[in-house]
């Protein structure tokens, strides 16, 4: 086959990349980078090529486009004939490697989706299977009824952002058991890979827990190893009775708003595994805001959320006059402390 000279700058990106790969050179990047790389390799701005080397890629592209055109034509014919179902799509010839996206960002994204987060079903260790039956049934119902959609590719920052924080010295932080249980349920719902959960969970350790994980001489390879070690090293500091005693003495601090106090007591109650009625009792008891306590004294709340709605409404109605005089809720309420 006769060969002829071509200006390297006139070659297409697929041809440039193929030539660079044949020479075992890096083929990623934009066209100016590819041109410069090939010129440096050849020592000239021209290169001798046969017609086949130029046309092979074009033939592959033509085959792919032709197959796509046939697919569209068959679908349009089915719609025109009033057919309900969509005709089967014939296989499309694979895209030649020379015309695949080869810039750094495209390669990284394709590899990321193809390997790290290619999740189609739960593939966690046995530690993830121990969930409540109701959660399992709900998950089966959801997966059996929803329509297939493009899967979301979870990034590590996504998982870190949704996980709770574990600090063994913080009263409102979940216990080690609650921390592990919450993460396992989230992993089951969102079909996270085990290694991703293991990475994100360690990023959510604070205080002594962070110093513990940093000081280890070994690395956890499975979620089961990590969860067992964390529970063993951080047993709950407070029993349910201890938490009740702390809630008994809990009062809204001088520099705390009503909502800050509300959510703190809720968190402490959840950690102690108290029911909603008991949590409502402790919130009501420690508000230290006489007008508010009087206003909601006769109200019954089934959940803390119902109580929060009533608190917000009462504060809004009772602070209309003080706000008009430039007094905010915190100052106004502190005058009437219990």
TrEMBL record:
SAP domain span: 8-42
Coiled-coil regions listed: none
Record-linked Pfam families: Retrotrans_gag, SAP
Gene3D superfamilies: SAP domain
InterPro entries in alphabetical order: Retrotrans_gag_dom (IPR005162), SAP_dom (IPR003034), SAP_dom_sf (IPR036361)
Stated name of the protein: SAP domain-containing protein
